[in-house]
């Protein structure tokens, strides 16, 4: 009977390792500093993953293991913003995809406000245009001889299609 139980436990171990998350001695999954997206609200998430996880909502985490390891007492507020992987390349190395952040030496977790790359749209006077009443009119002239910039279009922000999730970080 004991041998049968031992064989059962040995055969079950790989299943448990592959199909569950490691839970540490304080009952939490993951490692300090891990970030997770979830559709679970904070109460449900902590019930599944332990109370060492918090929303990334800009809160003060002084005294947590994460604040001791990173010397940062405030976690980033990720609500309503897109997360962007930190670019470790420099301009000298060539190919930095985030030159504004690289040149300013902004740390991991720093906020970067919205921006759109500088550009303009010119509508030559000779191009058909809307006269504001919905009628299309033909203009005359050239870019150097006259014309106008196009009317503004769009909403309050520039964004791709997206889905919102809760974002959590393990602090203890």
Task: Give me the secondary-structure topology.
Layout: H1 2-19, E1 35-38, H2 42-49, E2 53-55, H3 65-70, H4 99-104, E3 122-124, E4 129-130, E5 136-137, E6 147-149, E7 166-170
Antiparallel strand pairs: 1-7, 2-7, 3-6, 4-5
Q: How would you describe this protein?
A:
The chain has 172 residues and is of the alpha+beta class. Helices cover 22% and strands 13% of the residues. The protein has helices spanning 2-19, 42-49, 65-70, 99-104; strands at 35-38, 53-55, 122-124, 129-130, 136-137, 147-149, 166-170. The strands form 3 sheets. A 3-stranded antiparallel β-sheet has the order 1-7-2, covered by helices on one side. A two-stranded antiparallel ribbon has the order 3-6. The two termini are 42 Å apart. Residues 4-9 and 15-20 have low confidence and may be disordered.
